[in-house]
Specification:
The complex is a heterodimer of chains A (332) and B (326).
Chain A lengths: L5 E2 L12 H26 L14 H8 L7 E5 L3 H6 L4 H8 L23 E5 L6 H14 L5 E6 L6 H13 L3 E7 L2 E2 L2 E2 L19 E6 L3 H18 L3 E6 L17 H8 L3 H11 L4 H24 L14
Parallel strand pairs in A: 1-8, 2-3, 2-4, 4-5, 5-9, 8-9
Antiparallel strand pairs in A: 6-7
Helix pairs in contact in A: 1-2, 1-9, 1-10, 2-7, 4-10, 5-6
Chain B lengths: L2 E3 H15 L3 E5 L15 H9 E3 L4 H13 L3 E5 L10 H8 L2 H4 L9 E6 L14 H5 L5 E3 L4 H13 L4 E6 L6 E3 L13 E4 L4 E5 L2 H15 L4 E5 L2 E3 L3 H11 L2 E4 L8 H13 L8 E3 L10 H7 L3 H11 L4
Parallel strand pairs in B: 2-3, 2-4, 4-5, 5-7, 6-7, 10-11, 10-13, 13-14
Antiparallel strand pairs in B: 1-8, 6-12, 9-11
Helix pairs in contact in B: 1-7, 3-4, 8-12, 9-10
Classes of the chains: A alpha/beta (332), B alpha/beta (326).
Chain lengths: 332, 326
């Protein structure tokens, strides 16, 4: 299926064809991410995790669906809200939770923490804490792919709050000008920390920013993981085949605060409840049942996820603390 | 041995390294078709094509970040800032990304990139285009900071910087491009972190880098006529700093004058002074002297611009204070 190059504005509700085989693994990933985030929140409230902790609960379909459209050698560049993207790209809950706990066995040896997940093995280029500052990095990885002709595509995730900063604007300008194989995914979760869109953006449609750079765009709801996969796959294919970048806006919602310290007083309970009715996990599960998945199978899957996260928490708890930092300043 | 300009030396270094390694490319404003705002990249486009000599729009944060991303996945970018004054709009890429990714990733990703371009006060271009920013970058762990004073140093250090696996901030002297020095035809590399004695002397140690090395050499000539032999120590890289070389010289002379074209407050010379007193206190026969620019944005008028910056006579006066001759 080919979308027209300019598919902005189109928040269509056309159902995406689904099979249990395709949906079930994506549901499992989303569920694991949610359980991992819940375990992180619990450990945070117990004082076992420090610093900033930005949970992705509510937005799981975006990172899971988008990453499902990639090859393993494709690159992903993410923000400080990176746990879901890392899990979807193949990193283990053990390595991530151990990182949050500041342990030696952590993904980045206890040196990065929640906001700075990286994995060379999984072509995961971070985990970046400066809003928009990673957009040029993603363009740079795409530049390298085009330079070498290696056929890889880079996915770059950011929020709608990043669409006002210079790094975003310059990254887009150069990706558009040089036709770099990157898919820029705006996870529009409606709030830039505590500021709603109408107070931070003059337009409702973030994907319109693509027009200034001669770039393809797309825009759709992010509660259907299969739709995310299908639509991102179109942009990925465009990047791989023609080097053309795409700006994709996926409309979503985070159920929790911006970070653990945010009680979310800037939005109403009713609004949050309304979005929770569109929970991508609930939607995927109902669809699986509709497609004929056996409840027993789903329960088994859910128990398996529960065990995976419990094991990861145990691993994080029992791992030795981080103990070296000097070797990672300058590469000899 | 051929005598070539600082500009030609830098150009040769890039040509040789781009010939040697197909992963090296250069990117920046006017580096290609225009042949370089300061002509340092002259001829590169013709030799290496648009694929490896990439003209950019005016977007320092964008192309500096593209360099960081490309370096993370194995290319070896040279990012030219038309002047280091413009690096300030890209400093997030240098400080938050290039300098930290090796650490943040627990050693999984490194950033072999060179940020280079002219730096330091120029001539009558006003305060936004005329300032010394090395103290900013020298402050940051994860970076290397190189400030060559001669054509010979410029070539050998740039070749090493391009081969280094870490981000290197390579600050060329904007007023040094036309200076000449003997540069061998055979390939050579100079290590980062090793200073050089530019002139030997026994009475006082002058520590200076980039353009101020030349000011110190001129001052040393005048002082020699009065029987004062100044040793001029050029650390060449500010990070890592060749502290032992400076300390050994001060142990020999017992006096130390640090000359920098930057501002005095929290300037790099203060760190040098700290290192010297820490490691050679018992050898000092006088307080350490610093000669800096005045603590002001650079004025435009030629006479004021000269007045603000360290001149030969300022260095001579500081030396005489250190020798209790003033």
């Amino acid at each position: 299926m080919r979308m027209p190059k300019d598919a902005g504005d189109a928040l269509d509700d056309e159902p995406v064809p689904a099979t249990i085989e395709e949906l079930q693994p994506l549901y499992r990933q989303m569920l694991a991410i949610r359980r991992m985030e819940e375990a992180s929140a619990k450990a945070y409230s117990q004082g076992k995790i420090g610093g900033f902790l930005h949970l992705i609960i509510g937005q799981e379909a975006v990172c899971v669906g988008a990453t499902a459209a990639l090859r393993p050698d494709d690159y992903v560049v993410a923000t400080y809200r990176d746990h879901g993207h890392a899990y979807a790209k193949g990193m283990t809950a053990r390595s991530m939770l151990a990182e949050l706990y500041g342990k030696k066995t952590g993904l980045v040896k206890g040196l990065g923490g929640s906001m700075h997940f990286f994995s060379r093995e999984h072509n995961f280029l971070g985990g970046h804490g400066i809003v928009g500052g990673h957009v040029p990095i993603a363009a740079g990885a795409a530049f390298a792919s085009k330079y070498r002709g290696d056929g890889r595509v880079t996915l770059c995730f950011f929020g709608e709050g990043a669409s006002t900063i210079g790094g975003f604007a310059e990254g887009l300008a150069l990706a558009g000008l040089w036709k770099l194989p990157v898919v820029l995914i705006c996870e529009n979760n409606q709030y830039s920390m505590g500021t709603p869109m109408y107070r931070s953006l003059a337009v409702e449609d973030v994907s319109m920013r693509a027009l200034a750079h001669g770039m393809a765009r797309d825009r759709f709801d992010g509660d259907d993981v299969l739709k995310v996969k299908q639509r991102i796959a179109i942009a990925v294919e465009r990047a791989r085949e023609t080097n053309e970048p795409t700006l994709v806006e996926v409309v979503t919602y985070r159920f929790r605060g911006h970070s653990m310290s945010d009680p979310g007083l800037y939005r109403t309970k009713e609004e949050v409840e309304e979005w929770k009715r569109r929970d991508p996990l609930g939607r995927a599960r109902s669809l699986l049942v509709e497609l004929g998945a056996a409840e027993a199978d789903l329960h088994a899957l859910e128990d398996d996820v529960k065990a995976e996260i419990a094991d990861a928490v145990g691993f994080a708890e029992s791992s030795p603390v981080a103990d070296e930092y000097l070797p990672y300043v300058i590469k000899e | 041995m051929p005598v070539i300009s600082y500009r030609e030396a830098l150009n040769q270094a890039m040509v040789e390294e781009m010939d040697r390694d197909p992963d090296v490319f250069i990117m920046g404003e006017e580096v290609g078709h225009y042949q370089g705002a300061y002509k340092v990249t002259q001829g590169l486009l013709q030799r290496f094509s648009e694929r490896r000599v990439v003209d950019t729009p005016i977007a320092e944060m964008g192309f500096a970040g593209i360099g960081v991303g490309a370096a993370m996945v194995g290319l070896r970018p040279i990012i030219e800032f038309m002047t280091f004054n413009f690096s300030l709009v890209a400093i997030d890429q240098i400080v938050s990304n290039a300098a930290k990714i090796y650490q943040m990733s627990g050693g999984q990703f490194w950033v072999p990139i060179v940020f280079r371009g002219p730096s330091g006060p120029a001539v009558q271009v006003g305060s936004q285009h005329s300032q010394a920013l090395e103290s900013f970058y020298a402050h940051v762990p994860g970076l290397k900071v190189v400030m060559p004073s001669t054509a010979y140093d410029a070539k050998g250090l740039l070749k090493t910087a391009i081969r280094d696996d870490n981000p290197v901030v390579f600050m060329e002297g904007e007023t040094l491009y036309g200076t000449t020095w003997e540069v061998p035809e055979d390939e050579y590399l100079l290590p980062l972190g090793k200073g050089d004695i530019k002139r030997e002397g026994s009475h006082v140690t002058l520590v200076a880098w980039s353009k101020m090395v030349w000011t110190c050499l001129d001052a040393a000539k005048v002082l020699a006529e009065e029987g004062i032999e100044a040793e001029v120590v050029d650390p060449r890289t500010l990070r890592p700093l060749d502290t032992p070389l400076i300390v050994e010289s001060v142990k020999k002379t017992g006096r130390c004058v640090i000359v920098e074209v930057g501002w005095p407050h929290a300037g790099f010379g203060a760190e040098v002074a700290y290192q010297v007193q820490q490691h050679a206190l018992d050898f000092l026969d006088a307080p350490i002297e610093r000669v800096c620019s005045d603590d002001v944005p650079m004025p435009y008028a030629k006479n004021l611009e000269i007045e603000v910056q360290p001149q030969v006579e300022d260095v001579i006066a500081a030396v005489k204070r250190a020798l209790y001759l003033a």
